[in-house]
């Protein structure tokens, strides 16, 4: 039997370059079904639902929706609120009042857990209701998925950043440490490896949260590479930890926690600067620089993977199809079926919610300071078409005459 | 009378996205003249000349040169050395030994001063020799020029960064401080204003080195904007100074100086973090973030202005034409002749060398915390074609039912 009523779409957590593709996919697909009376967008994520702040996207033009789809960051705005049972009761009061029967929540693992709670509450109270989690995270750390929408575009930004900084570091040699986002999973930091085109190209070293960070080993790695290449470009994940699981950064400064209890690691240059100081002091190297990619990697406009755009659109469409056609709940997951082809499935929320996928061992080299070819083979098709290339001069060297 | 001999091209200072366009323009144009016996590239700037490290670019394929032209950063590598009279004597020994009669140096104001010294030394010693400075700097601070190659692409990167971070800040509101390169001139920081599309778009405040920075005024500006918009995005130049001309950063930490005596301001997040701490402490605001754009703004691959590419190519070609056809010395300068059209002239090195152009008063608002429309009108045609646009949802708000 068809479930008649309204749809609410919301966006949670940090923005990505393609999160609006999923929004527009879910909205346009939902608008096709006659049993859908209206399609609302919640302004400001779950908080917007509690506060009854909705935008009627049934009345938005298709043309403008398509323009929003190619705009990065969450067009409906987002929230860092993490709803508990009581919070979800408030949400249901609003859903009942507005006759909302379908809920699509675009977000990462915290958001999928919210969908799980909302769903279980609907079941308990006997309110006929479908809720689907639409995957999104630049961290690429959702279980079951081959990869998650938002990651390919962020990875492309990181790859292009390192391609450029590698050329910069080659022109003016020194040690350059670049800190990349990723609290637990190293996928985004690992994307820097795409810049390794010629054997002397950086990043020469890549440090991931999946491997215990040892300062002595780090310093000897840097010395080896600097001796070999006369320079050293290093990719470091913001979430690197020592062997006891203590974040290297949290030992260095007072930290801030968000509503989920997560340490706030982005937006600070402290980790890079501390590592740079160690290299200067312990190795006696002079030209040592650090940069922290910061918020640019999740919101830079004009650096996007077309593969990512297409898939983000489709997971939004699929959510509407599963909920409205098939009347089922869950999380949309992406599965690689060829090189390169994907398929979408509906997976139980319990398999996704509040869990974290890390880099598999096959993607990390034995020394724990770089990635493997298996990883770059995995990543390359996700980056999309038109990746820039770096060319270098290959003319012969002129023999010296004065030969000092 | 035709001056027969070799050409040497070199690249100085920090890389830009289009510095290789100028290299390739000078090389290809030089190769057309029969009196040019060979075209050498100096590896590592002036240091490479002293060390006799040349690459024979006469033997490089045109096809590969074209690929290098669209690759950012200095393909010949660069140097931070600042030659004095003695250093230049060493250079002349090498030039004489290799029969070098033409020297093209691509760089900023320090590089133009080097060309001036080399030129004067040639005159004094009666060595028949032509030296031309080809302009390049992301800081846009060369005298006489309407703008300088490298600036438009870096400005585009800054503009696209702020467009994205503005959307991010809108989705998850708070105070966000972004630190942009620019030691003395605010042109690059000012480019952030391109993100100001709707009246509530950031950056809401822009602080430039051309105006004395006052902490109290800054804090009251931030409060005003945060009260008005519920958020505040701020662009700050790394080179902001107090009314005594003391860099705000240098009062905060130990700094490093390069061979030119310049304080090393890039590659550190200290300025942004210090300002963020002030906002947190003095205004009691909680979600305050800072990012430092760092080296990405001069070397990011895949964000370039096609206008900048074209002009960078032409100043390289013009250098070869002036020197080889017209047998004159100087600095190539860019002059705006329409909206939008430019012409190139040869200007005396004494008008360019070691001087710094700042933002004109007409480009800065009265309060000294934003730019004027005159500035954005100046900048817009330089950014080139295909600038991304940010769209927002415009659907009607749904009336509340529970109306809490």
CATH topology-level name of the largest domain in chain A: Rossmann fold
Most extensive protein-chain contact, per-chain counts: A-B, 84 and 84 residues
Main pleated-sheet profile of chain A: 7 strands, mixed
**How many beta-strand runs of chain A?**
11
- Estimate the global geometry of chain A from the Cα principal axes: elongated
Rg over C-alpha atoms of chain A, rounded to the nearest angstrom: 23 Å
Separation of the first and last Cα atoms of chain A: 89 Å
Task: Report a brief summary of the structure.
The structure is a homodimer of 404-residue chains. Chain A has 404 residues and is an alpha/beta fold. Chain A has 13 helices and 11 strands.
Keywords:
homodimer, 404 residues, alpha/beta, Rossmann fold, 2 domains, seven-stranded mixed beta sheet, four-stranded parallel beta sheet, 13 helices, 17% strand
Write the SSE topology.
Two copies of one chain form a homodimer.
Chain A (H helix, E strand, L loop, with lengths): L4 E7 L7 H12 L5 E7 L2 H6 L3 E3 L5 H8 L15 H13 L2 E8 L1 H17 L4 E6 L15 H21 L3 E6 L6 H4 L14 E3 L7 H15 L2 E6 L32 H14 L4 E5 L3 H4 L6 H20 L4 E9 L2 E7 L1 H4 L20 H7 L25
Parallel strand pairs in A: 1-2, 1-4, 4-5, 5-10, 6-8, 6-9, 7-8
Antiparallel strand pairs in A: 2-3, 10-11
